[in-house]
Amino acid sequence: MSWGVNWKASVGLLGVGIKYLAVTLLVPLIVALAYGEDIWVFLVSMALVAALGFAVERVDPDPDLGPREALLFVSLAWLAAAVLGTIPYMLAGYGTASTVAHPVNALFESMSGFTTTGATVLGNISTDQHSHALLMWRQLTQWLGGMGIIVLMIAILPEVAVNGAQLMDSEAPGPELQKLTPKIAETARALWLIYFGFTVLLAALLYSLHLLGMAPNMDLYNAVAHGFSTLPTGGFSPQADSIGYFSAAVQWVVIPFMVVAGVNFALFWHVLRGEAEVMLENAEFRVYAGALAVITAVLAILLFRGAAPPIELGGTTQGVAGNSVRQAAFQVGSLMNSTGFATADFAQWDAHAQIFLLFVMFIGGSAGSTGGGVKIVRWIIVAKAIRRELFTSAHPDVVQPVRLGGNVVDEDAIRGIMSFTLLYIALFALSAVFIALDTTRVGIQLSVLESISASLATIGNIGPGFGRLGPFGSYLFFPNTSKLLMIFLMWIGRLEIVPVLAIFISGIDTR
Amino acid sequence: MHVVVIGAGEVGTSIASSLASDHEVVVVDVDPERAEQLKYELDVLTIAGDGTTSDIQTAAEVGRADMVIACTDNDQTNLVACGTAKTLGDGFTIARVKSTDFLQTWNRSEGAFGVDFMVCTDLQTAENIVRVIGLPAAIDVDPFAGGLVQMAEFEVDEESPVAGQTVLEADRYESLTFVGLFRDGEMTIPRGDTGIEAGDRAVVVGSPESVQGFATDVAPETTPGRADEIVVVGGSEIGYQTARLLEEIDFEPRLIERDADRARWLAENLPNTVVMEHDATDTEFLAREHVDEADVVVTALRSDEKNLLISVLAKRLGVDRVIAVVDSPDYVTVFEEIGIDIAINPRTVTAEEITRFTYESVAENIAVLENDQAEVLELELTDGCGLVGRPISEIVAETDARFVIGAITRDHEIVTPRGDTVLRPGDHVILLVETDSVSAITSMA
Amino acid sequence: MSTTIRVGWRASVGLTGDVLAALPVPLALPLLIALYYGESPLPFLAAIAVSLALGAAFRSVQDPEQNLGPREAFLAVAMIWFLVAAVGAIPFTVAGVGTVAHPVNAMFEAMSGLTTTGATVLRDFSLHSRSIMMWRQVIQWLGGLGILILATAVLSELGVGGAQLMETESQTEDVNKLTPKISQTAQLIWGIYFGLTGLAVVVYFLLGLAVDPQMGLYNAVAHAFTSVATAGFSPEPLSVGAFHPLIQWAVVPFMVIGSTSFVLIYFAINGEPMRLLKNEEFHFYLGAMATLATIVAVGLFLDPNTTFGAEGTVRHAVFNVVSIVTTTGYASTDYVQWAPAAKHMLFMGMFIGGMVGSTTCSIKSLRWLVAMKSFKRNLFTAVHPEAVRPVRISGKTVDEDAIRDIYAYLLLSLVIFFLLAIVIVVDAERADARVDEFEALGAAATTFLNIGPAFGDAGPYGTFATFPMTTRAVMIVLMWVGRIEIVPVLVLLTKTFWTS
């Protein structure tokens, strides 16, 4: 049977990428050396990954990608990264009580990392059970996935840069690709540099807080680890209490970086070139900033009036304005941009506040940011298109294009955005039902909020949900079938559904 | 003056006929019959042939021409003709174009295509329509500095709120200057404390927005406000430009266009216009969209017959003012006779604009007021001229000439003149001068 | 002048007046029943008086000069649905018995009836007189009739809602050209509606004679009124579960037919059954019901807590799935007691709905079908960027504008549904009435999509009276908005509707 796709080209190029994945394993290796931990895990992993890379590369030494091959390549690249990312987990966990020794759990953890979801099945998050090096690998997967592994490949690998625009378009979050420079590799490099810069800045700030004595728990290891998972809107933390483990000062420092992570990185590029007005006049940025402010304010009022239980990690909020604002800003910043950090166990808050946070989870970050979810620009366009429908139903002859920041949005793009949004909601709803049914099958009763949030938190790459999946909970108790579905949801959620599904369709339909 | 007119269509003929009495005019046209015919109609020399070639232009003695006017129906022909003319001599070249794209290119770098002055037929017509819509109370309106500045003359009647105020009180606008006040046929140069009385005629110079605002102050009843409904029928270039210019002065017009693709294009390019895709001759549609309640209807379809039909329909439905674009100059009177308020002929507009231009000497643009008592001039200041490099108050103190500087444009931005404003080379100065002092001023420039 | 109203509202008011003036005709039926059973006729006389008075007042405003354009039609549709419900509420308040004596509850019950929702705020069914219970049924039947007129004659003219797709759907060039005149088409459709109702009366009554004495003439008429209208009220507190299994089976086909396109039924009766049988929406609609029923049946069978036996399991699964998907809202058993898996399936079923051009509510199969095909097309064009591929339903191309409309409609519905669920939870908490999330989601879906019963306290054997008054008021509005396909109400809220 013909696949209608030159899969050899996609796979061949994949080999090139895999080779370089081995290099990234140097980071946990160094950590292992520094802490005097077992380095064999990472050495063996590196050898395996590199060998596989060299082998696969031979499938097609001179790959040439068309649109179909590009879609296949992008889909496969993410899958391959997640699969290979499991090797350290399984090797380190072999023969111990570690939950991630099981392949499904390892894949869940790895996919959750690369897609910057932040949902975890690690039963006991502490350096007592897992090595510093392994937990650092967990953080690093998020950082690699944040700006996009394809964008990274385009930035550094000339072989990949040839088909760069096509590839980046399939991976970039949001409806369209913005090319900042004539050469796509330069665009990719600019984006990664900005991303890298913010990461270094955050790690440095956190560590200096520690040196100033304002953050006793934030040592160099934690500073780097949290730098690695804040900018990609990841959400993993080597601490069981997430950011709640650290002082209020640390929490205040992390908030602006989460907010930054939800902004279109191309806008920062303009700011760096001295065109700050491009950012301030960007329609999506304005809505994003406005929504953050309004939602934070509402949640802060709810918390102030006592939506959280009296004794809370990070301080009581009822009647304490400072704590209320901090908790509200942190949770909103974390959930709207799909980071998934927490400074409070919002699974314990009352129904008002929880439903409100569920609503926030639907929004998502900006297009071109590292955030997940539906993305703000899509909601803006959907709202405008609906308003237009209302207008034209009263005035049937009126021709009215939808505008975004003065530019006309193409009708095909509007249809694409509406169909994406619906598909997203439909997939989310069907998965929620599947998860509910599957857990019932094995005798676990999920509440509706739990099943809804399990589905939403994975497809939107958010991480924590409600109930047992709360920020300090775990996805461990789900049956393997549900975990596999969630792995799939994280994968297609990160790639915004179309590339993955299109590959399935073209597998069937070879015309 | 030796003037060469290329293209003997309606515009060319009209220009040639108004110049023929005082100047030496040569008309070039590709159609030998037309050339032959014109020879007898007007006192001009006619040459049959392609006006873009240097052979024909040499025959028309373009080399010694003071002015070359290219006004065929084809934009490219006109531009090439001007370019060719520049290779033969240094006469002042004027090109008529339809496309606003060429006009934009030319505005960006004057002298492009070898054209010294460009008249855009459709834009000119649209500007004319918008002026008629916007300032019904004005006796006279003229654009200066490429439309950045407007001069308008208003009659202040009994009911006007401005009557009884001083100039200082009446002038609430940053970029508006009172340049003259006519009372009982006598001109005075107004000062801050000059009172305005009913029956006066006030001449103001300023940005189109401020002139519009002042018009509302003078005659709040008749001057349209932002809430007024303006319906443009027909998405031709004139219709599009009219809607675009209306948007610029904060109106939200409605535009009716029949063709789906054109309607979509219009809707995309006119963010504040409601574009409707329908046949405007459908009375049911007109009733459904309440076109009868519109304050102004502009018909800008490509066919005169349809414009006539819709104008009559709109009048019957009870529209206050109907402005029709009439392609054939012969019909203008017909339209106005059957009750259409204003009929505008694009060719006449173009011909008038070009003819007006031929009168000028140093001044780029002039308007004559009140039986030639005063003139409003636009001067482009050159490096060596006597007005440059000094504050205005100094110039005023030095000369006996009676004049008021109304507005200055510098790099396509309007600058409000103050006593301490220093004029620079390249500035366009719009000023009102008493007729007696005109030569004094032009000699300084 | 931005303040002038540019809508010919007098024409809309006049039309509303015409409809109100005709209301005494349906009100006569419960009046006769009241006289027959010796109950108080006062509630219905009051309603007749009010409808005549309002009708006359509204008609006097009418301006024959104004014609009914799309905007006027939107206004009229919104007003008619609201005011008929208001008049319909009068008998409940005047009778003054039970929970519905309160005006808000009376309005809830009447709106639920008119919109063929079937959600009730009655607590104790035995308190109420037979005539009042029959009025509940009649108002539902009226609602079904009204929506048919709206769907076949009015909305297709306006190009709004699912109706614009009827042309594609019925595979005719124009729905209105079934016969040369719109009024004739409408009469044909009503004829089918009357005929089906009559048939249901006969079938129910005969079965009642044969197997179940409880299904007398009164109940036969009462249930006939609400099964073809896919409405869901029943004078029995146990709904259709009160009757013999055979009668339950007999109700199923009437619900299915009630949610099938009446235009296609017309063709089927007139010797072109293939139009119906080959229709893709029909396949989708039947397929969805079959799939859900199978899953529910399997779920019930595996669940140790439910013991219905083989026939009972299949019957309950089929009956309740059909009842929910067709948006009827009957129940053969209290499915609130079922396992969560089965309840989830019913919840999903709420969003599907029957076919366009029927009495069904909810989102409607055709919209989902078009959306699905359009998704597939999107995926296809992602792989083949240059491909031009129209979306086809039953071989006919669907207009791109219609696809956009459908997307907008689906998204709007989902957003409104979600917001309503939030309002229900928040309001319940404010009033200290604990409503769990699933109950809130169910109640939001069931009222906005006009289905009827939900889960928890608002289940098929429960009542909506447990929700706070404010929640019920919001539900009244959303039943109204949902039934007339959102757009006619939402456009009234835009400024340009009135002024430009």
Describe it for me?
Chain C: Belongs to the TrkH potassium transport family. Chain C: InterPro entries: Cat_transpt (IPR003445), TrkH (IPR004772). Chain C: Pfam families: TrkH (PF02386). Chain A is mainly α and 511 residues long. Chain A has 22 helices and three strands. Chain A has helices at residues 7-24, 26-35, 40-57, 67-93, 103-114, 132-146, 149-156, 158-161, 164-171, 184-211, 220-230, 248-261, 265-272, 276-280, 283-304, 321-336, 351-363, 376-394, 411-441, 448-459, 480-494, 498-508; strands spanning 398-399, 402-404, 407-409. In chain A, helix 15 packs across helix 16 (321-336). The longest helix of chain A has 31 residues, at 411-441. The radius of gyration of chain A is 22 Å and the shape is globular. Chain B is α/β, with parallel strands linked by helices and 445 residues long. Chain B has 16 helices and 22 strands. Chain B has a six-stranded parallel sheet, sandwiched between helices. In chain B, a hairpin with a 4-residue loop joins strand 18 and strand 19 (374-380). Chain B is globular. In chain B, 47% of the residues are buried. Chain C has helices spanning 9-22, 24-36, 42-61, 70-95, 103-114, 130-158, 166-169, 182-211, 217-227, 245-258, 262-269, 273-277, 280-302, 309-325, 340-350, 365-383, 400-430, 437-448, 469-483, 487-492, 495-499; strands spanning 392-393, 396-397. Chain C has a two-stranded antiparallel ribbon. In chain C, helix 17 runs antiparallel to helix 19. Chain C is globular. The model of chain C is unreliable at 159-177 (pLDDT under 50). Chains A and C meet through helix 4, helix 17, helix 18, helix 19 and helix 20 of A and helix 4, helix 15, helix 16, helix 17 and helix 18 of C.
